[in-house]
Amino acid sequence: MPIRHTCLLTALVFAGLAPAFAQSTREAVREEVGNRVSENIPAIPAELVDRLNRYQNTRGATASGWTRDGCLLLGTRFSETSQVHRACQPMGMREQLTFYPEPVPGVLPAPAASGRDGFVFSKDVGGDEFSQLHWFDLQTREVSLLTDGKRSQNRGALFSDDGRQLAYSSTSRNGKDTDIWVRDMQTGAARAVVTEGGSWFPLDFSPDGKRLLVSRYVSIAESHPGEVDVASGKLTLFPVDGGQAAFGGFAYAPDGESVYYVSDEALDGQAQEFLTLRHHEPRSGRLEVLSADIPWDVSEFTVSDDGRHLAFVTNEDGIGKLRVLALPSHRPVALPDLPVGLAYGLSFSPDGSKLALSLNSATSPSDAYVIDLADRSLARWTRSEVGGLDADTFVAPTLVHFPTFDEVDGAPRMIPAFYYRPANIPAGTKLPVVVQIHGGPESQARPVFSPTTQFLVNELGMAVLVPNVRGSAGYGKTYLALDNAAKREDSVRDIGALLDWVGTRPELDAGRVGVYGGSYGGYMVLASMMHYPERIRAGVDIVGISHFGTFLKNTEDYRRHLRRAEYGDETDPAMAAIFDEISPLNGASKITSPLFVAQGKNDPRVPWTEAEQIVGAVRGNGQPVWYLLFNDEGHGFRKKTNSDYFTAATVLFWQQHLLP
């Protein structure tokens, strides 16, 4: 039974936080149900639960690679969390293989040439992101733990071609640095081969398994690739033209000597805006840019085991476009027409004749597809449910651009946004607006399927705007760097420009605008409410940063240096002063609109104290705040029951504050 009572938020529990928080004595109605703690959230009406039910029972399926017998491993949810399934033919039965209360991501099938029949998967506890790697044997259905099982983060699993070695990244040595480990899959012995400090990741084994391509990640704009001798651990870093560049995938060509990679490294001394696919032959020094004619980022690529094809995806204004090249000629391979949307998760079949991928669009959840490269046919392997809804009624967004405060080449800088608009709007209607702000900040809002967005548009008649403010990925390195460090609030000014644009649209109601965002997007929600209180009627902050100084102090050790590269160093007095100036916690008195804050107690990225302190500070100023805390979640809500409750509460919040 729920426990409902009245409590006082006590400043003594959080001594040392902002004074506004210390003054918080406003009473909150608290309810505890299982792992859920909520404050000031009204009971969810049964009618709303019923209306949401079908939208909340949509699901997707993502391709996670091939087994040696030609079946596809899939990630999908049939109960509470996403688990591993297997399908062996187009539209065939999905056999569930894992049954855990926690989601199972990071699936890696053993190479067909290894003779091993199974896959590696990762799993954490309660969203704490201290993922452990496990081996699933498809013959015996037994599961074996591969990593230390302690408070360490293990990810990026990678098999050698013969399956005898498994490389992965781990923080097990000191909890701060991410080292590269290699495990002998026959003996079970594991050893660290790169312990240079920082965040290192394995990228590809050489065909003979003796060398390993690796990279040290500093920030989205800076990585340092190299090669390590697996036996000796000798590391050789590759030279980087210009001294600093971003690098994506890195893989050996079938010859084992030349490499394919993605980078924005300078070419002939000229800086490059986008991440391009390149082929480099170290012996001859020859460098070929394979995507030179595409002025967009290459987001991923993969090479077939038989060495005959390379597939890659470009991110073109948010849309994912697939291309395949024949090797070694690099001639384009003709492909069937694909649905417009996002293509990702590429994997060639063991014999190289087929290419599996996942496709997602604004009007369709993710599903697995397979292309037969010989006859250019496209086969759909899964058809995910949409809760019995008529998919033809789903709304696709329009890509719009709005002017912001600064200029480029003498003209206003234009900010892209996806605009979801209800169909058949009666003349004279003024629509309430929800602005959804992505996290990262080095991320990108893309037109993916969102049942919640479809509910807001179709059921509640609301407009939804999803901007990619400055600092977003996908639009070149210059755009990416526009919000770094002291320029942080320039991205908030982009939201102000979007509010101006809303005011110019006759179908939109500039007096009924809400903002919604998670993680860094949660900071953007709080900052927007702080700067534009008279123009934003309500806001929803999910796992958001309320003060960059306290965030950097309390985030997990392995993340701190990565986040300093983006936000700035809180130990620098000048940067600390900027954090104090721009952080919503110190400007909480300016947040005068209703606020809803939601958080996972186990969040290793943005600690739950970031939520607690902003809730206390805003309440301390006499403003109402809804607060939701899940004790079994981390950086976001991955369990269906939790996600459903949060969504219902959010919709109720919008109904109360944005609808007539």
UniProtKB/TrEMBL annotation:
Record-linked PANTHER family: DIPEPTIDYL PEPTIDASE FAMILY MEMBER 6, SERINE PEPTIDASE S9 FAMILY MEMBER
InterPro entries listed in its UniProt record: 6-blade_b-propeller_TolB-like, AB_hydrolase_fold, Peptidase_S9_cat, Peptidase_S9A, WD40
Example of a GO biological process term: proteolysis
Domain Peptidase S9 prolyl oligopeptidase catalytic, first and last residues per copy: 449-658
Protein's recorded name: S9 family peptidase
Keywords: Hydrolase, Protease, Serine protease, Signal
Source species of the chain: Marilutibacter penaei
Entry keyword annotation includes Signal: yes
Secretion signal span: 1-22
